[in-house]
Amino acid sequence: MASDIILYWGSGSGPCWRAMICLEEKGLSDYTSKYISFDNKENKSDEVLKINPRGQAPTFKHGDVIVNESIAICLYLENTFKSQGTKLVPDDPGQQALVLQRAVESHNLHETVYDVLLYFFSTKPEDRTEAMLEEKRKACHKELQMWEGYLAKLGDGSYIAGKNFNLADACTFPFIATLVRMGFNMSRYPHLAKYYDLVKDRPSVKASWPPLWKDTPNKDFLKVI
Length: 225
Ligand SMILES: N[C@@H](CCC(=O)N[C@@H](CS)C(=O)NCC(=O)O)C(=O)O
Known about the structure:
This protein has 225 residues and is of the alpha+beta class. The protein folds into two domains: 5-80, Glutaredoxin (3-Layer(aba) Sandwich), CATH 3.40.30.10; 93-224, Glutathione S-transferase Yfyf (Class Pi), Chain A, domain 2, CATH 1.20.1050.10. The chain has nine helices and four strands. Strand 3 (59-62) and strand 4 form a beta hairpin. Helix 1 (14-25) packs across helix 6 (167-181).
C-alpha cells in the first residue's frame, strides 16, 4: 500500500519523472498522484508551499515524512523500500560509487538541456542569433559527448552505470528523452540513441511517460542544435 505517499508532479518535468520512475520501479504505483499545472502556477499554491517552500515539483510526502529534491526522493524510496522492486543502488562499493556519481552527475545534463530549452522558449525565432545558438550547441554537445563516452566504455546494451537499470538511469533518462522529444537529432550519438531505445519501453518509464507527450508529435526546436 503506497497511498500514504503523495507526489505533486508536472507533466514533462524531468525532475518529477525521476521520482515517478523510482516509484514504479519500487512497486509503489498506487501512490497518491497530484498533478499540478505550471501554467496555472499550481506549484505556488498554499498546498504545495506548505510542503515545499520553493514551490517546485516534485514535492513529496510519505506519511509525515517530507522529501523534496528529485534525487533525494529517489534515494529515500530506495532506502525505505529496499527489499521490494528493483534494486536501485547496488551494495558493492565500487558499483555503488559509480551509480551515485552518475545519478548526481545527471544534474549537469539537466542544467544543460534546460538551459538550451529555456533559450528557445524565451525567444522568438527572429530574435535568435547564430552566436547564441552556437554557444548553446557547444554546451549541449560537450555534455552529451561525456555521456556517450560513458556508454561506449560500458559496451553495447549497457545502462548508464552498468549492466542493470538503476538509480543512475532513473536520474538521467528523463533528460535524454527530453532532448528527443524536442527534436534533437540523437543519431549523432549512437550509444545514446541505443540507450534511449533500450529504456523508453521499460514498464516504469512507459507508465510514467509525460501525458502531454503521449498524443502529440515530437517538437522540432532542437533540430538546429
Ligand atoms: N532541484 C530540483 C529542481 C526541481 C525543479 O526545478 N522543478 C521545476 C519543474 S521541472 C519547477 O518546479 N519549476 C517551477 C519553479 O521553480 O518555480 C529537483 O531536482 O527536484
